[in-house]
Specification:
Number of strands: 15
Distance between the termini: 44 Å
Number of domains: 3
Strand content: 15-25%
Number of helices: 17
Radius of gyration: 30 Å
Strand order of the largest sheet: 10-9-8-11-12
Oligomer: single chain
Structural class: alpha+beta
Largest sheet: 5 strands, mixed
Length: 552
């Protein structure tokens, strides 16, 4: 299995008394002071950065190594998240700038043509439009230059508390408004803290110990108070009757049981638990993270020899194709993802429902799932080439990373094997070989290639492509020969050859792709009548031509 482990997070809301709430607030304030100072230390040149002992001595505040680990992991996650978002923004800007430069070149030629032969009013409108495009291009180029310089300097300008709230301070004039803003600013900057665990610590975490309670399906938490706060709140804070109502309870129950058995049997390896405390308008929430492995015992009923399910992730749907062991399609499904005009909570719910239906289908068929090993930048760059407003709107709401992560998480929880394959040219090969042969869409044809690639089938382009244009003329095209080119060079050349070919003809029934022309199992009426949007008159006119053609 490609993803043997996955970190799962379980959430519950804490029912606290006033003293416990005050203790957690003081804990969060102390922890975030260390976090801010450590982040400032990392922004210095490497020669001037302090290690943990020097840093603790400079702060004059003793804290344990495990607390420091929580601070370091939190800062590391923030920096990595910012760097990933910056790379995504750079990739998006790069595509936008290239497309806008092409548009400007066309617009300049059109301006010159209209200036010579058109009316003055049309020329003025085009010049105004050209000026607006040039301003937009300069703005994007400035953003790109600033991000590139920031990346080269290895900076991560993170604002703790949020830039929106920070900018709000500039609009305040009255003392009462400033005091209210300061309270909200302090709450936003000190509303969470993280405690990480280790497998060799008692109950999986030294600073927060989760153990079974007397009540069924409930737990109790013992939180170790820092030395600075023990004079006020004591050594520990005990929180009882914790229940995790959402998610797979078996994973956290297994982790707690494993840590409990480890106390009596040292040969058993404990399960590390990480605890994140977050405060919102309703109070404190507790998020417990545990690393879960996909046990082989859960997946014994999944047999790759019975076939797999190929999945192609798209901005508005999941294209799913079920295959047998020989790579032949058995059936195809579509799970819609109407993410446009939805907020984050609605998108999360829609994605969760679609992935759940996908996993239900995989469990019903008893087959593993195969997806592309692709990151968001590549997927977004692929769809940005679709120069269409509809694709632009869908891409704005496209949450490819969230879909991919949720598929991986659900496969672990439900014991369904998940495989990743190389995504190179799956869409191109699907369109050329399987789209019209099986009556699939482009995306289902790509899903078929993804599933076949898991078994190592080599997808060679057909030796010739045959099609009928709108006039009823039968044409044959021969793809370029591989010769001494490598795979990457050859498929790039093949794509450059095929894309204009698709756009050059007004299709009636689409190109028909066969390795050998004399092996045709489709009737003329079925192939022509099965395509939506065809004129009956054109079908009637083209049928005699096709019937008379020996190759068809």
């Amino acid at each position: 299995m490609d993803t043997p482990t996955k970190t799962l997070t379980f959430e519950t809301r804490l029912d606290l008394i006033h003293e416990q709430d005050a203790a957690l607030c003081q804990y969060a304030e102390l922890w975030n002071q260390v976090k801010f100072r450590w982040f400032a230390n990392l922004q210095k040149p490497k020669a001037q950065q302090l290690n943990r002992t020097q840093f603790m001595h400079e702060m004059g505040m003793p804290f344990s190594y495990r607390v420091f680990q929580g601070v370091r992991q939190s800062i590391k996650g923030l920096i990595q998240s910012y760097q990933t978002n910056r790379n995504n923004r750079l990739a998006t800007l790069d595509v936008k700038i290239k497309q806008l430069e092409k548009t400007l070149n066309k617009l300049k030629k059109r301006c010159d043509h209209v200036a010579e032969k058109g009316s003055p009013q049309q020329a003025k409108q085009l010049r105004n439009r050209l000026r607006q495009k040039e301003v937009k291009l300069r703005r994007w180029q400035q953003k790109q230059s600033a991000l590139v310089a920031e990346k080269q300097e290895n900076k991560a300008p993170i604002c703790f508390g949020g830039r929106k709230l920070l900018k709000e301070r500039q609009t305040l004039k009255s003392n009462e408004g400033i005091r209210d803003w300061q309270c909200r600013w302090h709450e936003a900057r000190h509303r969470e803290f993280l405690l990480v665990g280790s497998h060799d610590e008692s109950w999986g975490c030294q600073n927060a110990q989760l153990s079974p309670s007397e009540q069924e399906d409930a737990y109790q938490l013992k939180l170790l108070v820092p030395h600075q706060l023990r004079a006020t709140f004591g050594t520990t804070i005990n929180i009882d009757h914790l229940q995790f109502k959402h998610g797979s309870k078996a994973a956290i129950a297994q982790a707690v049981w494993q840590n409990q058995v480890k106390k009596h049997d040292k040969s058993i390896k404990g399960q590390p638990l990480s605890f994140r405390f977050k405060r919102d308008k309703k109070g404190w929430r507790l998020l417990v993270s545990v690393e879960v492995a996909g046990p082989k015992e859960q997946a014994e009923w999944i047999d790759d020899d019975q076939g797999v399910i190929g999945v192609d992730v798209n901005p508005d749907h999941l294209a799913v194709v079920e295959l047998d062991r020989n790579g032949n399609p058995l059936q195809h499904r579509t799970f819609d993802l109407p993410l446009h005009y939805k907020n984050d909570a609605q998108r999360a719910a829609i994605i969760g429902d679609a992935v759940r239906d996908l996993m239900d289908f995989a469990a019903q068929q008893g087959k593993a799932v195969v997806i592309e090993k692709l990151d968001f930048q590549q997927k977004k760059r692929h769809y940005q080439k679709q120069d269409h407003p509809q694709y632009a709107r869908m891409l704005n709401a496209f949450a490819y990373g969230k879909i991919k992560d949720l598929i991986e998480t659900q496969s672990i929880k439900r014991g369904i094997r998940l495989y990743h394959v190389n995504p190179a040219y799956t869409s191109l090969l699907g369109r050329m070989k399987y789209r019209d042969r099986h009556g699939f869409s482009d995306h289902h044809a790509a899903a078929l290639v993804i599933g076949r690639r898991h078994y190592g089938f080599k997808e060679k382009p057909p030796k010739q492509l045959m099609g009928i244009n709108a006039k009823g003329t039968v044409k044959t095209e021969h793809p370029p020969v591989r010769m001494a080119l490598g795979d990457y060079q050859y498929y790039n050349k093949l794509q450059r050859w095929y894309q204009p070919l698709e756009k050059s003809l007004d299709f009636l029934s689409g190109w028909r792709h066969f390795r050998r022309v004399n092996r045709v199992s489709y009737s003329v009426e079925a192939r022509l009548g099965g395509r939506p949007g065809m004129s009956p008159d054109l079908i009637q006119e083209s049928t005699p031509l096709l019937s008379a053609h020996p190759a068809l």
